[in-house]
Amino acid sequence: MSSFSVCYSLNSAQIMQTCSFVSRRISDSAKIFALLFLYLYVVPVELHAQKKLSSDLKSASEQFLGTLTAEQKALATLPFDSEWRYDWNYTPRQRKGLPLKQMNESQRKAAMNLLKVALSDQGLAKAEAIISLEYVLRQVEKRPENDTYRDPENYAFALFGSPDAKQPWGWSVEGHHLSLHFTIVDNKVEFMPSFFGSNPGIVLPGYIQEGKQVLKEETDAAFRLLGSFDEQQLKKVMLANKAPNDLLTTNSRKVNLENREGLALGDMTPAQQKMFQELINIYLSRYHITLKNQELDRLRQADMNKIYFAWMGDREPIRGAGHGHYFRVHGPTFLIEYDNTQNGGNHVHSVVRDLTNDWGEDLLKAHYEAAHKK
Predict the structure, then answer these.
(1) How many CB atoms lie within 10 A of CB 4?
(2) List of residues 6+ apart from 370 with CB closer than 8 A
(3) pLDDT, tens only, 263-307
(4) Which one, of 182, 184, 130, 186, lies nearest residue 155 by Cα?
(5) What is the DSSP secondary structure assignment for residue 348, as one 8-state letter?
(6) In 67-140, which ranges are continuous DSSP H helix?
(7) Beta-bridge partner residues of 51
(8) Distance (Å, rounded) from C-alpha 154 to C-alpha 157?
(9) Cβ distance 269 to 262 under 8 Å?
């Protein structure tokens, strides 16, 4: 196979590793060709994909705004530098933005199209399933059909700044157990923090949507990985026999979790590494393929061997008083937390954070530095 064909199907992080390997076996001219291919083809393709997604989000946002009345726009839009952009939570509450309940059908369709553009099909299905669990909670808690605490229409869409190819802007959707935040700077899109939760974790018999488990893939993959460890590995993986009662980072604006604990991917067997990477892939597959690929690139560039897996609580999916489990995936630039302890281990909170670029902070810093030099 030629160096060209080896590199053709890879993203930028993979191609650097592959071409480094190939370069030890080919002539200097072939090395130069491989590097030229990287910088003349692969990098531009990735930049084009980012620009395309940015443009699609801009169009979807403008379409949504175009359906709104002046009064609705006043609720849905805030300045980009507003502190409300960082005000996020995953509990039932009133939020900034325009909630679904204050939209007509065409406006709701335009709002949900934002999610459709930003997420994968799997991610969109999970988001919609999380919203629909509010109907289950009404039944579980014996609330009326018009209850406003467990409310599938209390999910608010907000735009920060004006959709613009030159100036930073962003948008969010937030409600009970769904909190998604997108920042767009110079045709690049960032998508963290990103929270998906599920209450109930599994809908119990006797209720509508019986048996539904919105975050089943994530849960099953984590238990498979945990079950693969031997006793020596478990001594590193298991941080405590009791799980915390929520995410350690909660809804903080900036992650403050310095020490990576547990077992590193680099210290796992090849089979375990594959399972660990699959768990990460399940999380990232919620998002548009461009966002998934750009995050995987960053993880590889930061060295995936330095990503740690840690566990606390029950080692089996047991429900009941006092039961629950917690795991996290913690790398140099990336954090996943998953906690299922409330309601007797049947209430899941899970978040994905970027340790350096939540809210697009790195992109914004580069943007403002470049503007200052002009």
Answers:
(1) 12
(2) none
(3) 999 999 999 999 999 999 999 999 999 999 999 999 999 999 999
(4) 130
(5) E
(6) 70-76, 105-118, 121-140
(7) none
(8) 10
(9) no
